[in-house]
Amino acid sequence: MTTTDSLFRGRLKIIQKKKGYRFSIDAPILAQHVRLGATDIAVDLGTGCGIIPLILSLQTPSAHICGIEIQKDLAELASGNVRLNHMEGKITIVHGDMKDFKSYLTPGTVDVVFSNPPYRKVLSGRISPEEERAVARHEIKASLSDVVSVAQSLLKRSGRFVVIYPAERVIDLVLRMRASKLEPKRLRLIHPEQSSEAILAIAEGIKYGNPGLEVQPPIIIYKPEGGYTDEVKEMIGN
């Protein structure tokens, strides 16, 4: 059973399963922080249903994006979404393990790598009995170390890595990025409400970049009276 959802005033249609993995607000927020040039080659590590490549291709039609997904059903769903939106010449979906990328991508050739990776360590929190959700949320098939290492290998010198991750694990993320020569250059925290603690963070690193971090204004998801803030509405295409 699937649903078909529309984004950006009907310009984008996304088929998702009713049960199992469904993208959350993390994905369109991350997409709005991935800056693509007209001729850029970009890679999405763990593309799910293909939501982020689809949004980016809508915004920068001349870029080429490869989405890697280890779960077969999700990779097939992502491929179907690419066809549904007539983006076959712009987006390539690969069913495979990101750690085996050398069988279909050349190291050091990618301009931008982005990811909304599994957030939780395997032994932390309740693991969903539904495999798709479990793999998407927990480091079962890929760890933070795997994601950062693959990004570093794929990127050109001065290539960009953009990732969304839990605020409580920002130190893990930043240390791992710096250790892999992906120097953190931008950081933006995401809060559910103005008065609440941050729950997520978006970080951008530059391969072999110079030290110097820009901490950008926070994103607030909900207005005090309820409903999304104007900034978030814009990000999700409402």
Q: What Rg, in angstroms, do the CA atoms define?
A: 17 Å
Continuous helix count: 7
Q: Characterize the largest beta sheet: strand count, sense, and whether it forms a barrel.
A: 9 strands, mixed
Question: What portion of the residues fall into strands of 2 or more residues?
Answer: 25-35%
Helix content: 25-40%
The CATH architecture would be 3-Layer(aba) Sandwich
CATH homology superfamily: Vaccinia Virus protein VP39
**pLDDT below 50 for ≥5 consecutive residues: which ranges?**
134-140
Gap from first CA to last CA:
25 Å
Oligomeric state = single chain
Which structural class do you get from the secondary structure elements? alpha/beta
* Average of pLDDT: 91
What is the total domain count? Answer: 1
CATH topology: Rossmann fold
Cα shape:
globular
Write down the secondary-structure element order: EEHEHEHEEHHEHEEEEH
CATH class: Alpha Beta
The total beta strand count reads 11
